[in-house]
Amino acid sequence: MIKIAVIGTGYVGLVTGTGLSDFGNKVVCTDINREKIEILQKGEIPIYEPGLKELIDRNVSSGRLSFSHDIGTAIQNAEVIFIAVWTPMGVNGEADLSAVIEVAKTIGRNLNRYKVICTKSTVPIGTGDKIKEVIKDNLNSDNSDNTFDVVSNPEFMREGSAVKDFLLPNRVVIGTESEKAKSIMKNIYRPLFINETPMVFTNIPTAETIKYASNAFLAVKISFINEIANLCDVTGADVHVVAKGMGLDGRISPKFLHPGPGFGGSCFPKDTSALIHMGEKRGVDFNVVMAALKTNEHQRLHVYKKLLMLMNENVKGKKVAILGLAFKANTDDVRKSAAVYFLEKLLKDGAIVTAFDPIANSNMEKIFPAVGYCNSLNEAVKDTDAVVILTEWHEFRGMDLEKVASLVREKVILDAKNILNPNELKRLGYNFDNVGRPTVK
Asked: Which residues have a catalytic role annotated?
């Protein structure tokens, strides 16, 4: 049983710490946010992630998982320290490493024997070397003889399925130049070795690059299928069938070929921008990734214009219901979601907006308090002039279109996630649009 300290209890840190404890390690999850730690100590969790509550409860009960705001003590008692703090996008698109640097300083001040320092946060290439320097600069006279190794172990968890992605990953990437650190990391992930999970052992810069390259490629794939969907809009082709035909090619695969109002969330926008910034600093042009970001920005406006067309180019004084506020289903994360863009535009254009999301209402209300947040789909659509679907919740997939028709003032629907049957909408007399699908087959 390896003693582990995880610093940071956001999506990455909390799922990582819990997952590592489930692998049989003894884990302390720490955070400078005392309120967050107190919530966790009470048996509650500050984020919504399917399956996480049950996993936490099981490992807390077993004595393998605990929570503390005493980061120094956790570092001193640990054999391995995972850095899992947030690295937001800076003003110029560069990743903000201030939290990572502060953690590295704290580690240096509390280093009392050999430890493995593992970076789980998404960080720019070269951060591993920077962490080494910061730790060395902050060693005091009592611990200056102690050694440590730095490891890059990027995460590949999707919000909404993070627990599954951690416990049953497609691969584990470990970047280190130290055989000792490599052996310890293999021991931490021993259950995955038994399950023959693919393991990629490499150096730190390569591990850091794999993370950014993966997210950038997926962002490009989403932007590509959105452009194909826009072509389908004007040709009568069905983008769902196009995507299926493409995905049957093993070189392409069907994953992330789902058109919509553009990608959002906490990763793709900031990681693509950070990759472009890294390239600029080193004289490397990321023209494809830049095009994907440009397409993503255009897609939001393109889909919003579809709503304007459905409403005769005028939303002022009209009541519009937004269904889905999170950037994707099975999460309460509204960062960079399509709903943020739509709410900004609608409110600016003078619309009266109601909204419903099964999980994310409270998070969006902090940003847009003027919106009328509802407790159900039916409440949100009542007496509205248009309904817009922006998140692919199952509740919306199975919505009773006849019931909705009886509640709305005008039967207008923009299905920006392509989850409704166009033929059924047509049969019920809706004025509707979607993204790249013909209205009648």
From this structure: 267
